[in-house]
Amino acid sequence: MDRKSRTSRSANLDDTNEEVNLWKQICIALAKLEHVQKDTANVVTGINNIHTAVNMEQGIPTVVGNKLMDFYRGGIDLSNSESKIIHDIIEKVSVLIALRDASEYNHVIDGKRKKRKADNGDDSSSSGTSGATPSVSSKRSKTHQHILTHGTSVAARQPKQKDKNEEWILAVVISYNHDKNRYEVEDVDQDEFGQKQRYMLQPRNVIPIPNVDEAKGLTEINTGQDVLALYPGTTCFYRAKVAAPPSKNKDMSYGGNYKVQFEDDNNEYKYVMPGHVLEVPKVK
To answer: What is the pLDDT of residue 17?
Structure first.
């Protein structure tokens, strides 16, 4: 079957382009990280100066001890702040890489998204996803026990369109309508007119994507299991089979990633970061 790869179709980057906005956010976060690291260096210097000036064997004066404790507490707070900023940067960079790869390695033909050519030429949609519910195992991540908040990254199943295969796209939550029990989500990519499409979707058509911290705590998906994975160089999720989870992936160039085989992809192996490998939603 043919698969659609999704690219950023704007030739001129401007302030409304997702790539530019992401890059600006990354630069701001990096500047903040630099300040935090400078403050951390000052704290470490202060601690070292106290240890150098005080004879620990003779005891530490109360005033000096209190100051030392303040340094330690400040150092812990700064370390926590540094960790959060780094994780936020990694998340944004992962999305930026997906968008940039799509822009670099795919191009628009006649105003349409370039398709990922399959080896069998069949245009029928893949089985097992129609009418699916994103009820992810509790061992992997949280299900919809709570309302997803604005800005949450998700895999969203686009409404079925005539003559088009079912497609799960990378999107972000805009809002949740309690009365209609629908999420409004926005495609991270732009269409051929430079607009980002928004969709009103049932919760079963929205799968939350774990952030960096959550992804680290997830139980690995076993070899041979079917998954939805973000195809490298695109912002689309497709069905794939796990060839090796991160702990068993021996390729040092892609350490920490899943090794997968996408359906109808000439039996090639691809590598996908853990947060972008999701369990296949169960069919009702």
So the answer is: 56
